[in-house]
């Protein structure tokens, strides 16, 4: 094999990146563009699908130019993406009929309420592993068909296609030749049966979605067509939703491995093995990256909607900081907080509460509280929300968590990582490679393309730092009890409204 590089397309909520790895898994080049967020109404979040494609193409071309690496030396491309975000486009022209409705958008909460009232909750949990929530693609797709003029007729006539961002990019980069997705992305639509690995007719009919719109679902490490660049065809050999890709990059194809990605949201995933376990504690069951010899592995996931986004809120809306990284120094420079909690339910609460109506709150303000304390409480909220999810995971899996692997932008924050370890009372293990999501996608592609074996990829991850718990158990219990009280009060206020 003389091809020397693997490319990852990492299409996230806030940015679009192309990264080139060498065969040791080292980064040779990165190009990145910020993605414009559109907020047409309260609770709505949209992206422009054309911007997503153009940015991905531009970062791809830029990284090749900047590194001087020739496209003939690229063995394969892996794609990883923000999950659930929904695009519908015209089959003939490839033109989207509406903006992409982003995972954080909760405009469809009333559709979800109706589905729940119709008694579909248990069916959804048992067949898709999910809870009925506006987070997943199914109701977003229904909303587009119901609200865009002429969409329903065109869909019924087989003239529209649906996809999550991976499908959209595959379609565009292969000039409309392929309409594919992979198991991880399909499992986030609320339309896919994760036991039988097929689209679910009952849910398609409940949401009035024609099957002809849906992509073919493939193994995450398999052939998804080619990207042509300067007359060279580069095969796309890996596709996975970003959280599952991160778990894979962290070595999570083995049962029992858990990771938390601290990005816009926080996503805690535990590889729970080959058997479908339905959560009794507010988590969801979803599919791990699939390999030809490992088609079905189930993950228990806790999806927290607002993680690093709350630090951006401190910077952009509250203007309490100039840069997100300042929070580490600020937190280290003031004493431990006493009973001050920020509950960042800015988009409702995800796991384990699933409360679409909850709103953000701050509890425990006294006269001595200033902006630094608010900053610290906001940063700590990422760790408290993580603990809520880990507690649920321990209940569901029946096993205590002994080790947490971490990644994502906010995992760079040493104060947060130490506080997380203290609160969970387990070591928190941060890898040297911060682009672990992209690396996971590259690994999936590299496996299929014959660049790496399973043994090779096990040796790529290296530890940067392990944070060990230092907090005494009394303080830990006091702090967490205060958090649970703040959550209870938040939810009581909203119930009363
Ligand atoms: N040093 C830091 N301390 C706290 N939060 C941070 C820090 N660096 C980045 N973040 C947060 O991490 C998020 C970006 O992480 P990233 O993994 O790139 O997110 P995404 O993939 O969701 O776009 C932002 O929300 C930002 O506020
Ligand atoms: O783009 P990220 O990294 O914020 O991830 C978003 C998740 O995939 C949503 O489920």
From TrEMBL:
GO terms for molecular function: ATP binding; glycerol kinase activity. ATP binds at residues 13-15, 264, 308, 312, 409. Pfam families: FGGY_C (PF02782), FGGY_N (PF00370). Residues 259-447 form the Carbohydrate kinase FGGY C-terminal domain. GO terms for biological process: glycerol catabolic process; glycerol-3-phosphate metabolic process. Pathway: Polyol metabolism; glycerol degradation via glycerol kinase pathway; sn-glycerol 3-phosphate from glycerol: step 1/1. It comes from the Bacteria. It catalyses: glycerol + ATP = sn-glycerol 3-phosphate + ADP + H(+). Its EC number is 2.7.1.30. Coiled coil: none annotated. ADP binds at residues 13, 17, 264, 308, 409, 413. Keywords: ATP-binding, Glycerol metabolism, Kinase, Nucleotide-binding, Transferase. Glycerol binds at residues 83-84, 135, 242-243. GO terms for cellular component: cytosol. PROSITE patterns: FGGY_KINASES_1, FGGY_KINASES_2. Belongs to the FGGY kinase family. Key enzyme in the regulation of glycerol uptake and metabolism. Catalyzes the phosphorylation of glycerol to yield sn-glycerol 3-phosphate. HAMAP family: Glycerol_kin. This is Glycerol kinase. The lineage of its organism: Bacteria, Pseudomonadati, Bacteroidota, Flavobacteriia, Flavobacteriales. The gene is glpK.
């Amino acid at each position: 094999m003389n091809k020397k590089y693997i490319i990852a397309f990492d299409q996230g909520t806030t940015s679009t990146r192309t990264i080139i790895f060498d065969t040791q898994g080292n980064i040779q080049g990165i190009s990145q563009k910020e993605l414009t967020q559109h907020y047409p109404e309260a609770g709505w979040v949209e992206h422009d699908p054309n911007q997503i494609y153009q940015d991905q193409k531009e970062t791809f071309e830029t990284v090749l130019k900047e590194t001087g690496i020739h496209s003939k030396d690229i063995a394969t491309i892996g794609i990883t993406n923000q999950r659930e975000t929904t695009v519908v486009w015209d089959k003939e022209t490839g033109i989207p009929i509406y903006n992409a409705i982003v995972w954080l958008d909760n405009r469809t909460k009333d559709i979800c309420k109706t589905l729940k009232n119709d008694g579909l909750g248990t069916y959804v949990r048992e067949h898709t592993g999910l809870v009925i929530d506006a987070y997943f693609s199914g109701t977003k797709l229904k909303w587009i068909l119901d609200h865009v003029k002429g969409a329903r007729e065109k869909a019924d006539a087989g003239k529209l296609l649906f996809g999550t961002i991976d499908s959209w990019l595959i379609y565009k980069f292969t000039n409309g030749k392929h309409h594919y997705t992979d198991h991880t992305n399909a499992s986030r639509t609320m339309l896919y049966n994760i036991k039988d690995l097929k689209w679910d007719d009952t849910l398609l009919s409940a949401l009035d979605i024609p099957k002809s719109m849906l992509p073919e679902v493939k193994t995450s490490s398999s052939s998804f067509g080619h990207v042509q660049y300067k007359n060279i065809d580069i095969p796309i050999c890996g596709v996975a939703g970003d959280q599952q890709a991160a778990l894979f990059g962290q070595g999570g194809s083995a049962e029992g491995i858990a990771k938390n990605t601290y990005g816009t949201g926080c996503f805690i995933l535990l590889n729970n093995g080959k058997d479908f376990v339905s959560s009794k504690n507010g988590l969801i069951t979803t599919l791990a990256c699939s390999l030809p010899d490992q088609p079905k592995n189930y993950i228990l996931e806790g999806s927290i909607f607002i993680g690093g986004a709350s630090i951006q809120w401190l910077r952009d809306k509250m203007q309490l900081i100039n840069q997100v990284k300042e929070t580490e120094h600020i937190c280290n420079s003031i004493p431990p907080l006493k009973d001050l909690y920020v509950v960042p339910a800015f988009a409702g609460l995800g796991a384990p509460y699933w409360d679409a109506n909850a709103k953000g709150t701050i509890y425990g303000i006294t006269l001595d509280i200033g902006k630094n304390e608010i900053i610290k409480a906001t940063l700590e909220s990422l760790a408290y929300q993580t603990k809520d999810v880990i507690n649920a995971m321990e209940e569901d899996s029946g096993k205590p968590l002994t080790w947490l692997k971490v990644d994502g932008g906010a995992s760079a924050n040493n104060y947060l990582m130490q506080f997380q370890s203290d609160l969970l009372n387990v070591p928190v293990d941060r890898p040297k490679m911060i682009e672990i999501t992209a690396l996971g996608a590259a690994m999936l592609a590299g496996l299929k393309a014959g660049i790496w074996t399973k043994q090779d990829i096990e040796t790529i991850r290296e530890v940067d730092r392990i944070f060990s718990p230092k907090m005494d158990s009394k303080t830990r219990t006091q702090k967490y009890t205060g958090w649970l009280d703040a959550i209870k009060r938040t939810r009581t206020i909203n119930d009363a409204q």
